Amino acid sequence: MYKYAKITDSKTGLCDVGLGSNEKFYKSLGMSKMDIAQGFDGQWYLAEKLCGEDYLQKAAEYRKNVFEKEFFNTSLGWIRREVRMKDGNTRNFLSDLLLQIKAGLELGVNVNVITYKLPDFTKELSDEYIKSIQETKSATPEFIQECLMQTVTDWEG
After folding, report:
1. Which residues in 47-61 are b (16+ Cβ under 10 Å) and which e?
2. Is-contact 41 78, C-beta < 8 A?
3. What is the spatial distance between Cα 78 and Cα 113, in angstroms, rounded to a whole number?
4. What is the rounded average pLDDT of the residues 41-53?
5. CA of residue 40 relative to chain centroid, distance
6. How far apart are CA 42 and CA 127, in angstroms?
7. Residues with Cβ within 8 Å of residue 4, at least 6 apart in sequence
8. In this predicted model, what pLDDT tens digit does every residue of 133-147 receive, in sequence order?
């Protein structure tokens, strides 16, 4: 997209961008019309820089870091820390759901949990893509122990 912009870092293509329509004002700031795009980090860049290998590698690393903050790994797969329930409410998996899952297992109930495969971090982690890597698996005592250990790790960390 073409917007008034001024390059602030020629190596990365980072730009200051005028997002309004006051062309005269943007020109007074030394901006000119450029082909720009918003990067993975919310910043604006020259569009041509967003396809460079260095940028793509940084984007993948950024997505991996975000994923690892929002999910934790178990023997069943990755578990989302904040779970959206069918009624639309959000629950913390470890503090709000784990004890109920454990109690169900102790009563002999088959308790299914939604797990996730490790994503391809070169792709955008859109809701649609994250949903495509979901799997439903039965909770196990080993899984409960891993989740309890994750709670301890989070608490100590």
Report:
1. eebbeeeebeeebee
2. no
3. 11
4. 85
5. 10
6. 18
7. 17, 18, 23, 26, 27, 31, 32, 33, 34
8. 999 999 999 999 999
